[in-house]
Amino acid sequence: MKGAFICTLSERDWKITRELGVYGNRFYKEGTSRRLGDVQQLSIIRDLISMQEDDLVFFHIRGKQTIHGIYRVRFPAYYDDKHRIWNNPLEPFPYRFLFEPHPDYKYLTQYDANIEVHSLYEFIDRGEIKSLVTLENEQNIEARGVRKILVEDGKILISLLHRDFKYRKSSQELSFNPYSPPYNVSLLKEHVYKVGRIENAIKAVLMYELAHNMTLVRKIFSGLEVDPDKIDFVNEFFITQTTRKSVDIYAVYRNNHILIEVKTNKVDEKALRQVLYYRDLLLQRPWIDIEKDRIKVVLVGKSFTNTLPDSVKKLAKIDNEIQLIQYEPTNGGKWGEFKDVY
Q: What is the pLDDT of residues 84-98, one digit of tens each?
């Protein structure tokens, strides 16, 4: 299955990023030499770790409020704090991936085709773009440099880039000189840590496994013969535009929708009520067909209260699809394994 991403960066860094085909996310708090905390480091890994070669990539230029594309991943996310690329004396931007102009759309990238961010909002308001609510950093919402979006939303961005190409492009053809690391680098999968202690760690494992492990995908889409090329998923998915409630992971296959809520430790009835509330909110989205669409909720945790399986069984009698999946930290908290509980 292939995915799509929007990556945010400054106007200052865009020129070298675009020319060399390498994007980097920060290690330190902006403008300081203080490293980001573990929760923030792991959120960066979580957002990048599911990236695969040929995934679609768009770039959001923060100052200009523009979106540029269309590119594709040529080497998935890795860590490199040794070789500095950007003109920043403090920040190495070590969480990186490599990209290139998408071969089907070279005429767009050669002239830096772009659209204004505000042109997306009419599509968001109409429910045509589902996996984006805003690209701005808002109070009480986690600031993110990379967002995984649904491929169908990426196709809308492609159509908008074509629509505005005549008016929003560079006057001269731009060069592309792809950068490659001068030594072997380690993929982000090798940099996950504190699984079982920090929620973003097990979320990162889940995001990687959903992209690479069809056994887990089939477990979550139980009862369906799934086509791997038609499955899509995103993390930190806003259930509604107005309440800003987000579920940890949203996965979709045709008219089958999966809401995955992750807890670091024990899952209880409160978590069950929370994810069922998210399901009810999802039913209100204009693109959900109540008659035809199936919505299932999945709770992932290290353990479960003794009463939770009985609560799930009772709810199952009145047409509620609920699955409990237990994870166990492995490799000293650097990865995790999953098994069905109910």
A: 999 888 899 999 999
